[in-house]
Amino acid sequence: MKPVWASNQRYSCRVAFPGVFLRIVAGYNFLFIFSKMQLQPLTLNNKPIFDEYAHRMCPRLSHYAFAPIYVWKEHFQFYWTLLTDYLCIFAKQGEDYFMPILPMPCDPENHIYRNVIRTAYHFMLESNRNPHIARIENVPQALYTFFQEDGFRVTLKETEYLYEIGTLSELRGNRFKSKRNVYNAFMERYPSAELRPYRIADREACFSLYDAWHTDRAAKCDDAVYCAMLEDSRSVHRIAIAHAEALGLRGRVVRIDGEISGYTFGYPLNADILCVLFEVTDLRIKGLAQFIYREFCKELVGTYRWINAMSDSGLDNLKRVKRSYHPIQLIPLYNVVSREQRI
C-alpha cells in the first residue's frame, strides 16, 4: 500500500485528465499536479541553471552546489526538472530514485514549495521498483520541524565542520601548538615547498599521486565501510580533476623540488564560504597535510570568511582530525522519508 503524506489523512483519491494526473489529498486544502515530469539528464551544460537556483538560497551545506553532485556521475544517474520554478535534482541507482538535495530555492513558508516536495516525493514512490529507497537527503536542521509536521520521519545523516579561515591561516594559541610545530618542521625540512594553482598540465601527475595514495590507504584498510568509500573515490577524483575549470573548482597543488606531492580542490558555496571537496598528499611526507591546509587558508583570507570541510563520513580517525582544527560550528544534515513508508 502506498504511503500517504500525513498521519492524520484518512483517504486519498486520484482523478485522471488528458496528459495530467491530479491527486486530491484529504487533509490539505490544495490540488496539485502529478504529471509526466520531464526529467533531463544532468550535464556540465546545466551548471549555470543549477547555480542560478542555488544562489537564491545562499547555501551553507556542502551538497548544495553543482560540483559535489556531478562528480558522482559514475555511481548515479542524475536528472533535473523544474516544478513551478523550483529546481529538483534526482539521483537514480538501478531502478530507484532519491533526491540528494531539497528542491531549490528552499522556501518552506510557501505552500507551493510544500506541494513541490510532495509531488517530487510521490514521483519517486510511483517510479521506484523499491519504494523504500525514496528519500530526500541533506536537509538542514532549520527544516527539521517542517518535515516532521508534514508527515515525514527525520533522521540524522551526518555532521559538517565549519571553520574560520583567518584562524586556520594563523594557527595561533596553545590549541594549535601541535599543528604549528608540525608545519614549522615541514617548512624547515622542505624549504622549496610551494602551493601553486592547478593547471591542466598537472592532471596526470595528480592522477598518479592519487593512485599511490589509494594503494597505500587500501593496503592498511581494515574497515569495510572505509574500503568501499576508498574504491568509490577514484572516479570522483578523476572527474573533478579532469573537469576542474568547468566545475568551477579552485584547485591547488604542492610542489616540492618541482614534483607534485599534494593537491586540494574546493568550490564556493556562497560569497562567504568555500567548501573543500577533497585533499590528497604524499603520505610519506610528514607535515604536508598541515602545510597544504594552512597555505590554502592563507590564500583564501580576504576572499572568504569560513571554510566548510564537509563531514567525517562516520570515520573515527577523520572525526579526530577535523575536531583537532577546532570548528566554530558543527552543522547537522538530515535525511527524510515518509513516516508511513516501510524501510
Question: Can you give a write-up of this model?
Answer:
This protein is an alpha+beta fold. The chain folds into two domains: 38-160 and 334-338, Gcn5-related N-acetyltransferase (GNAT) (Aminopeptidase), CATH 3.40.630; 161-330, Gcn5-related N-acetyltransferase (GNAT) (Aminopeptidase), CATH 3.40.630.30. The chain is 33% helix and 29% strand. It contains ten helices and 15 strands. The chain has helices at residues 47-55, 67-70, 111-127, 144-149, 165-170, 177-189, 203-219, 224-242, 288-300, 316-324, and strands spanning 12-17, 20-25, 31-33, 40-41, 77-83, 86-93, 96-98, 136-140, 152-164, 194-197, 250-256, 259-268, 273-281, 306-311, 329-338. Strands 8-15-9-14-13-12-11-10 form an eight-stranded mixed beta sheet, sandwiched between helices. Strands 4-5-6-7 form a four-stranded antiparallel beta sheet. Strands 1-2-3 form a three-stranded antiparallel beta sheet, with helices on one face. A hairpin with a 5-residue loop joins β2 (20-25) and β3 (31-33). α6 (177-189) crosses α9 (288-300) and α7 (203-219) packs antiparallel against α8 (224-242). It is globular and about 60 Å long. It starts with 11 loop residues before the first strand and ends in a 5-residue tail after the last strand. 31% of the residues are buried.
